[in-house]
Amino acid sequence: MGLWKTLMLSGALATVGVNAYAADKTAIFAGGCFWCIEKDFEHVAGVKDVVSGYTGGTTTNPTYKNHVQHGHREVVQITYDSNLISYEQLLHIFWRSVDPTDDGGQFCDRGHSYTTAIYTAGEDQWKAAQDSKKAIVESKKLPASIVTPIEVAVTFYPAEDYHQDFYKKSPVRYTYYRRACGRDSRVRALWGDEAHSGIKHGS
Asked: pTM for this structure?
């Protein structure tokens, strides 16, 4: 019996919502500030929709004001056309858009809520995520160990409306924040030519 099934039978999935189980067309990633990862994945061919939100904590219906103290991470839920892009390709893009060696947050944003994670819905996603992580470790591409956990998806809670598509609603503020936070420079330093692979630049 696989680990994902063991977790399911043990009751670890008791709070999983419907959205988390659309394994053939959804993915949930934590990659630091959800404004940034939402923008990145909205510029990936085959992705239909990206929603910023929260998951992984100890309370229901978290908000931006209380999600940190209840252990939630900032995440995005990605809806994609599996005929155009695979989950494995999304994983490839995810890894190369974050710093998976940082266990204290991402870039200028510190704390658990900004740490990276992959939330898997179904055993196929679990195995694909494990395989992708193993491949990066074996490639010795990164200068330090990968600390990004692979976890079973639990209920995804959409963030407040003002967080959705923030880069479109407040482009000047968003652009300044992203540059000042050092996200892109760090990703380029870490991944080199592979940085932001699969993301349409300049969009």
From this structure: 0.87
